[in-house]
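Field reference: sequence -> structure
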Amino acid sequence: MNGQRDTIFEIAKNMKIDLDEGQKFISENLDKLAIDLQQKSKKFSFPFFNKSRDFKGLYIYGGVGRGKSMIMDIFFENIRLQNKRRMHFHDFMKEVHAKIYSIGQKNKNIDPVQVFAKKFVEKTKLLCFDEMEIRDIADAMIIYRLFKSLFSLGLTLVTTSNQPPENLYKNGLHRDRFLPFIDLINFNMKVSQIKEGKDWRKSLLIGKKTWLNPINLSNINIANKIFSQLTQGFNVKEEEIIVSGRKIRIPNSAGGIAAFDFKDLCEKPLAASDYVELADKFKGFLINNIPSLGKNQNNESRRFIWLIDALYDRKCFLIATSEVDIKKLYTGTEWKFEFSRTISRLLEMSQVVEN
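Structure field:
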């Protein structure tokens, strides 16, 4: 999508990612959207996909591990467009609530949603975010007004989800007040399902051992190589997320994968909710230097239990370097009963992926 306009398929091929039929279909849709956006940025305008409707983005849904975020990331990284922004959906909504509250406090006589939308679109013409999933009633009650304003002001949205629009906020409280947002998506966005197929990350993990012990140069190199393969073609960077006012530093992340040292996650005063936020944001984790956990690491052990519960429940995958084998990981007594479940989950998560 540069001056020569490489397609997403060509870029993925250079990244040694072999797109299947469903992934190619989504890629082609994003390529068409890229052409439209670049034409509009040159003051020319023509409808996206359809002569009768000017779509304002793409809603991509399908199963876990189908490469939705990976393809969107390639699109985002390679489109030559200013004023673009890539966010996780929940981070976006946190920003929305905070800024709308601030605007409303300063001036009671204006619509803070409209003011926020106008300021946002002044700086952001293309918004891409992961995992649209409405859980919070506060999000559900505001999202229709918000995106009605954003779309009317010219925002283009690309989002991924595991659900079709009709299943968003299913069985949620006061869902009848949320339904207009579903109509808004269907009218303004091209809704595209990615067909069932391989889990692209698992295909890269086929035949690989993902719990690596002991900690030595060989295992460290293996873990780093797996991380490099999973993030190939993406910009590895440091970032942070804010949970309940606390900043959590992610030392290295790219392509939906995050890399930490054990001390980053379990030797700091983090709560179970922090690990849930991380597991919602990333699909896979590399955790280095996991020690043998004994009676002197009760706090660290408890946090590790919370961490693995969050990763397991959200079907994240784990690559780890550790001093010891999984079955010998915990030697304390305080959390012996609770840790037995953690051991079971780790054994399941660390099974060698087979064809």
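Note: The chain has two domains: 8-193, 200-349.
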